[in-house]
Amino acid sequence: MNMEFSLLDYWDMLFQLSFLTLMMCLETLFHPAQEGELKYRISRNTAALLGKKLDKYSDTIFKDINHLYQIRSKLIHTGENIIKEIDLNLLRFYVKESIKEIYQMQIDKGELLELLNSRGFSN
User: Which has the closest alpha carbon to 65: 102, 33, 84, 93?
Assistant: First the structure.
């Protein structure tokens, strides 16, 4: 086995694990326990939280998270890795901004989800 090949495989695995870990962060932050529609709820709640704060429209954020979730599903369900560096960086950005915003709000998850559920998208 070639050592260079092994290091590339290892790097690819870390890349995938980073992506999945960040996606689990969004799931933990934005998905109510015991409820379905995971992709929709995560996309909508991220967009509702960050749409007013960032220089992006909420519908753009919604589409971004939907796209990232489709990548996650493809990796989890088929093993196919279609993650690009730009995808990982975008996901990292949304997770970081979400954590910062939630921390500043100083509310628990239940209150956060109630607030986000009452918000519409800001365009």
Answer: 93
Q: Fill in the amino acid letter for 75.
A: L
CA distance 27 to 25: 5
Closest CA to 49 of 91, 98, 82: 98
Listed by start position, the domains of the chain span 3-118
Other Cβ atoms closer than 10 A to 43? 23
Q: How far apart are CA 32 and CA 99, in angstroms?
A: 16
Residue appearing with tokens 């209150």: 111
Give CA–CA dist 93/31, Å, rounded. Answer: 19
Confidence label for 119 from pLDDT (cuts 50, 70 and 90): confident
Average pLDDT, the chain: 88
Residue type, 11: W
